[in-house]
Design brief:
139 residues; mainly beta
Length: 139
């Protein structure tokens, strides 16, 4: 896997890939249109963030590259990579006040309850390469 030079792209399977953790200055893409939905991406070595129609989808600190993001009302899946020697902190905006199970490389790392605003926070150890993440709504 590698960084996304164009900062965001629609994959052949309909998923989104975005982010470039190698750049030292903020790079942005505004109004990336996918079927009438507008995506905004901001990325560099300190943060990677994507919004859909002005609503946060995912934020990674420090910066990361996200491959094949796919979301529906019950699950979200993606791969994440970074070149840092610390865990990448991920924030996603999902359904408020719901419980979610987090899986990293098919290992259940635990459950988390979304806040009243729908925020879910978790960390992913990206040392050793990209990790596959799956978030499932538990209730």
């Amino acid at each position: 896997m590698s960084v996304i030079e164009e900062l965001i792209r629609l994959e052949n399977d309909g998923t989104l890939s975005f982010g470039n953790y190698l750049v030292n200055t903020k790079k942005k893409v505004l109004d990336f249109d996918v079927d009438g939905d507008l995506y905004y991406v901001k990325t560099y070595n300190e943060i990677t963030k994507i919004e859909k129609n002005s609503k946060l989808l995912l934020e990674a600190v420090p910066g990361a590259t996200i491959h094949n993001l796919k979301m529906n009302d019950k699950t979200a899946t993606f791969s994440i990579e970074s070149d840092v020697d610390v865990d990448v902190s991920v924030t996603m905006e999902l359904e408020a006040d719901k419980d979610y199970k987090i899986f990293v490389d098919d290992f259940n790392v635990g459950s988390v309850k979304a806040t009243f605003s729908g925020k879910v926070n978790f960390s992913v150890d990206t040392k050793g390469g990209a990790k596959n993440v799956k978030i499932e709504k538990a209730n």
